Amino acid sequence: xxxxxxxxxxxxxxxxxxxxxxxxxxxxxxxxxxxxxxxxxxxxxxxxxxxxxxxxxxxxxxxxxxxxxxxxxxxxxxxxxxxxxxxxxxxxxxxxxxxxxxxxxxxxxxxxxxxxxxxxxxxxxxxxxxxxxxxxxxxxxxxxxxxxxxxxxxxxxxxxxxxxxxxxxxxxxxxxxxxxxxxxxxxxxxxxxxxxxxxxxxxxxxxxxxxxxxxxxxxxxxxxxxxxxxxxxxxxxxxxxxxxxxxxxxxxxxxxxxxxxxxxxxxxxxxxxxxxxxxxxxxxxxxxxxxxxxxxxxxxxxxxxxxxxxxxxxxxxxxxxxxxxxxxxxxxxxxxxxxxxxxxxxxxxxxxxxxxxxxxxxxxxxxxxxxxxxxxxxxxxxxxxxxxxxxxxxxxxxxxxxxxxxxxxxxxxxxxxxxxxxxxxxx
Length: 427
Hints:
By secondary structure, the chain is of the alpha/beta class. The protein contains eleven helices and 13 strands. The chain has helices spanning about 75-80, 85, 130-140, 170-180, 200-210, 290-310, 315-325, 335-340, 365-370, 380-415, 420-425, and strands at about 25, 35, 45-50, 55, 95-100, 115, 155-160, 185-190, 215-220, 245-250, 270, 275-280, 285-290. It has a seven-stranded parallel sheet with strand order 6-7-5-8-9-10-11, sandwiched between helices. A two-stranded parallel sheet has the order 1-4. A hairpin with an 8-residue loop joins strand 2 and strand 3. Helix 4 packs parallel to helix 5 (about 200-210). The longest helix is centred in the C-terminal third of the chain and has 36 residues, at about 380-415. The protein is globular, with a radius of gyration of 29 Å.
């Protein structure tokens, strides 16, 4: 598999899942209208209330998202797409701390009890989005284990990057990044996207990376709930645009971005971001969510699973592992199972790469699994095939010349008479 080309690839929105699955960025201060859950087995799904990523900014009073009274009966498509049932046989992210910067996380939420650290306002998730995302990263699924997150053995450090309504703040994101760095979180997931870069934000990201954290960030905000995004030009959002940050966008089951998605640049991965099921901050019911924050949570969970399975990998190696094993597409698509289990060759051009293909080791050899990019051998294979053909043709030509020389010498010895005639004359 060829490593994806990172850089200024523009994301285009695509047609796909039914409009009922595309949740607005801001909903009234109540659970969203019921939406249909796409079942993993292709059969008719079920309806669940929608989880907003922010509350109505124009409402006079802040009313938190209420508890859902519905529970999902089936595993949704996203978990099947990421092959989580098989992934958990190899890694659950045990021992890894994921700092989640968003609307906060309720520490006692179903499937997250005892594994969430949240102080002050970070423990007050009025919107519910942060708790929803935490379930996708590290939730056990509670009474529904098939709805567990990508890394159910990981721990969550909840940090606020928004106000109580879910509106992102650059100052809060910077403070949260610094808190995550101080806490030595191995993974930092930034579920919000800011329209402007500033020195404090760049410094906070750089400090986190120097401390050894893998920073995963939403490539763009969710689209505005009122009006279309056709007139919004492509641009870079932050901190996803910072060097070394794993930038993530959402995708539909068909692999394209949802209609109305904000165009952006430099996306590293796409992950499921529509029709996704998880829990909320209150009660034991389930919600249906989508958008770039959901995709970011899935990618952060995959990073946690990789860090637990390959603890000696550097942060840069972890990022390369996720991008190298991604399903090749216009935007490479996250493959969490492959990221954890693949045995990969050394980066092309690195020291010792000339012999890396033969020294990668077996699947059970940790040292063999440490290098983190797949070497593209297609050109070598074509060259080897041509060389083999030339050798065969050359060998055939040499044999033909030798045989011709042998035949000529025998004919000369017979006086140029046919073989049968020579035998009769000698008698």
